[in-house]
């Protein structure tokens, strides 16, 4: 397969399940970066990702700019198969030597849906053997395997009848932006946070508030968008090790974006019950290149008020679970009682103080609307890894407080 600058390639961009539509939107925006000569074409959405095609330089742009994709996989082959030997033969035919050298370390991963093959581990081994045999035939050496930090990742995908072989252009997963030092407990992945921001309809200039910010993932993503900093500006990619990599063209692509003017007044705000988390968020914002003020406060979520008395805005947060809610709770209460009491109080805060706001809560607990005593305007299913979650939207209209006060006391 050619690495010529003008040759077309097919790509698959995986993403968190449920984010396919917003990823396709984002890819179309990235395609317009080269207008009027648009070479990146967005094709079909499938569960867990989006197919597209374009030049090698288009894959570089996706890696640099996509906040939602998990990786950018370059398709090398797509064939029918009946057994592991067919997969070996397909992998052996590929001109791996045109992409990387025998000195590069490799890793092979295989996923499958309804494949009749009995062992994915054996299939993975057959692909690895084919790559090594190809190099041994050419130069009497074989590449080494490194499952932790490989130079090259090869990905196989099997369905009931067909086998697709990919070369990963990204290297480490794209949600690893290169700015995070500490994560706190169970952090939200960056590409999921970016997808939630897009789904919420937040745009730069709109007030954004995360009252349970944890390590600040949502805030950092929003701040980089506001600043115009590409998500991949602070990291390296596997394609930089490919044969015929054009470093000058890559530098031109990286220099092509123009940072936005720094905002004069804050529009992004965060708070958390934990002072440690507030400090980690501030450090992550600095590491991500944010040069403007993002006000942060240590406060319990049920005590918050609209920042700067804003009469409207978007609240987007990923509520914590269990012990995090009980950081300052009553130690005599069981975790479940703390959880229920917290959401009850937080629901009152939303009704009494956030009229005019759109509130988005991302959670795996489907009982949250009931605990808040609020009816969601919309609920969108997403997956956080294997965990099925919902993004609940609540439109806080004025009058909630009066209606609550008029209810008979229980």
Description:
The termini are far apart. The chain has 410 residues and is α/β, with parallel strands linked by helices. The strands form 2 sheets. The chain has a 7-stranded mixed beta sheet. Strands 10-9-8-11-12-14-13 form a 7-stranded mixed beta sheet, covered by helices on one side. The protein is built from 11 helices and 14 strands.
Write down how many β-strands occur, each being a DSSP E stretch of 2 or more residues.
14
End-to-end CA span: 72 Å
The helix content is 25-40%
Strands ordered across the widest β-sheet = 2-3-1-4-7-6-5
Percentage of β-strand residues: 15-25%
Q: Please work out how many helical segments DSSP would assign.
A: 11
Shape: globular
Low-confidence stretches: 322-330, 401-406
Rg, Å, rounded? 24 Å
Largest sheet: 7 strands, mixed
Find the structural class using helix and strand composition. alpha/beta
Order of helices and strands: EHEEHEHEHEEHEHHEHEEHEHEEH
Indicate the mean pLDDT.
92
Sum this structure up briefly:
This protein is 31% helix and 21% strand. It is α/β, with parallel strands linked by helices and 410 residues long.
What brief labels describe this structure?
single chain; 410 residues; alpha/beta; seven-stranded mixed β-sheet; globular
List the helices and strands and how they pair.
Layout lengths: L8 E6 L5 H12 L9 E6 L2 E6 L1 H10 L7 E8 L3 H10 L12 E7 L7 H20 L12 E7 L3 E7 L21 H11 L7 E3 L6 H11 L19 H9 L12 E5 L2 H13 L8 E3 L14 E5 L17 H19 L3 E7 L4 H5 L5 E7 L2 E9 L4 H7 L4
Parallel strand pairs: 5-6, 8-9, 8-11, 9-10, 11-12
Antiparallel strand pairs: 1-3, 1-4, 2-3, 4-7, 6-7, 12-14, 13-14
């Amino acid at each position: 397969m050619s690495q010529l600058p003008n040759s077309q390639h097919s790509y698959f961009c995986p993403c968190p399940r449920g984010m396919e539509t917003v990823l396709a939107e984002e890819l179309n925006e990235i395609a317009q970066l080269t207008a009027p000569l648009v070479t990146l074409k967005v094709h079909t959405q499938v569960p867990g990702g989006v197919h597209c095609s374009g030049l090698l330089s288009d894959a570089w742009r996706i890696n640099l700019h996509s906040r939602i994709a998990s990786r950018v996989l370059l398709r090398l082959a797509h064939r029918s198969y009946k057994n592991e030997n067919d997969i070996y033969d397909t992998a052996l035919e590929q001109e791996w030597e045109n992409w990387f050298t025998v000195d590069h370390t490799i890793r092979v991963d295989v996923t499958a849906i309804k494949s009749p093959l009995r062992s994915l581990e054996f299939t993975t081994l057959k692909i690895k053997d084919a790559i090594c045999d190809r190099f041994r035939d050419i130069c009497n050496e074989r590449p080494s395997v490194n499952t932790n930090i490989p130079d090259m990742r090869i990905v196989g995908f099997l369905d009931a009848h067909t086998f697709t072989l990919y070369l990963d252009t990204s290297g480490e997963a794209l949600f690893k932006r290169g700015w995070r030092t500490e994560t706190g407990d169970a952090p939200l992945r960056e590409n999921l946070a970016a997808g939630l921001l897009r789904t919420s309809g937040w745009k730069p200039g709109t007030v954004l508030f995360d009252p349970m910010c944890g390590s600040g993932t949502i805030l950092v993503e929003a701040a980089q968008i506001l600043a115009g900093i590409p998500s991949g500006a602070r990291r390296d990619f596997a394609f930089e090790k490919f044969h015929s990599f054009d470093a000058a063209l890559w530098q031109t692509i990286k220099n092509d974006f123009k940072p936005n003017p720094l905002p004069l007044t804050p529009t992004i705000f965060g708070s958390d019950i934990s002072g440690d988390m507030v400090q980690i968020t501030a450090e992550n914002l600095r590491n991500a290149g944010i040069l403007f003020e993002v006000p942060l406060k240590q406060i319990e979520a049920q005590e918050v008020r609209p920042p700067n008395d804003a009469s409207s805005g978007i609240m987007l947060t990923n509520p914590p679970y269990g012990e995090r809610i009980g950081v300052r709770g009553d130690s005599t209460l069981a975790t479940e009682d703390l959880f229920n009491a917290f959401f009850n109080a937080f629901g009152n805060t939303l009704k009494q103080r956030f009229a005019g706001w759109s509130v988005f809560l991302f959670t795996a607990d489907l009982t949250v609307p009931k605990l808040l005593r609020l009816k969601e305007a919309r609920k969108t299913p997403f997956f956080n890894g294997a965990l099925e979650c919902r993004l609940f939207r609540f439109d806080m209209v004025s009058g909630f407080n009066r209606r609550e006060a008029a209810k008979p006391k229980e």
